[in-house]
Specification:
This protein has 274 residues and is α/β, with parallel strands linked by helices. The chain contains eight helices and ten strands.
Length: 274
């Protein structure tokens, strides 16, 4: 328990400071192999995303657009101000310089892994997304060979092994607080974290094990949809019994009238999936 407490108390990396070292790591053979796998996976997962524009948070692989497979007219990329390659937007993941409700999709490129306040990052994504927008999260899977190396070498304080590798079920819990529905989640890249082009090529066949051992892939992709519940007001008069209140959630407030009994107003929250 003491070791766990110490690990949780360790300060997380700052997103702004982590971007340049992460981009250098993604330029290695191992990083490029992961990027190729991510491009392949995302191109087949975003076919249901349509709209005007989307935002990618993190420019770890210059020229790589995580939302390229979506039906969007504009793909904007946000990066830290010290970025070597000029992105579309300069800013911080904790305070997105983007107007509220303007993005159909937001893609987090290891944003939560290297952010000292992941909850704030999610809140910012929620703010800029449209009512039915999608949040795509890419992160390192702690239940994998990547997670094992992270546990052994995090003390070196070197990217990417100094990040916070959050389990998918934990991220899903965070999203549920903001009424997001997880559409799909998968852990990909079955090869071990060995930075060697020759080894990567020889072990490429391991990717075929994803169908049976997908839970231990080194990198996960999670898609969640923002849900805005429509509300309708229904009158409920005193003395009349309603027989079917189980279809929705209700909030009752008393409204004083001239009679002895107050008149009640019931606000119904439609819980059906949009």
């Amino acid at each position: 328990m003491l070791n766990i407490a110490r690990r949780e108390s360790r300060p997380g990396p700052v997103w702004l400071e982590a971007q340049a070292p992460l981009a250098q790591w993604y330029a290695t053979g191992l990083g490029q192999s992961i990027a190729q796998r991510l491009e392949s996976e995302l191109s087949s997962r975003l076919g249901d995303v349509f709209g005007y524009q989307g935002l990618q948070v993190g420019n770890l692989v210059p020229g790589m657009h995580l939302l390229a497979g979506a039906g969007l007219q504009r793909h904007l990329v946000l990066d830290a101000p010290n970025s070597a390659v000029a992105p579309d937007i300069l800013g911080d993941a904790l305070s997105l310089p983007v107007a509220s409700g303007t993005m159909k999709a937001v893609a987090f490129f290891h944003t939560l892994d290297f952010c000292d306040n992941p909850h704030q990052a999610i809140r910012e994504a929620n703010r800029v997304l449209t009512d039915d927008g999608q949040l795509i999260i890419i992160g390192f899977n702690p239940y994998s060979a990547f997670g094992a190396r992270h546990a052994l070498t995090a003390w070196r304080r070197k990217e990417p092994w100094n990040g916070r590798f959050y389990a998918r079920h934990r991220v899903s819990d965070w999203l549920s607080v903001l009424d997001y529905r997880v559409l799909d989640s998968a852990a990909v890249f079955m090869r071990p974290p060995i930075n060697s082009d020759r080894v990567m090529r020889r072990l490429a066949k391991l990717e075929g094990l994803h169908r049976w051992l997908g839970g231990i892939g080194g990198v996960y992709i999670m898609r969640a949809r923002k849900q805005t519940l429509p509300m309708s007001t229904v009158r409920h008069w005193a003395g009349r019994k309603r027989q079917s209140l189980a279809a929705g959630s209700f909030a009752r407030t008393g409204e004083q009238t001239g009679t002895r009994r107050p008149r009640a107003t019931v606000a119904r929250i439609d819980s059906r999936t949009r």
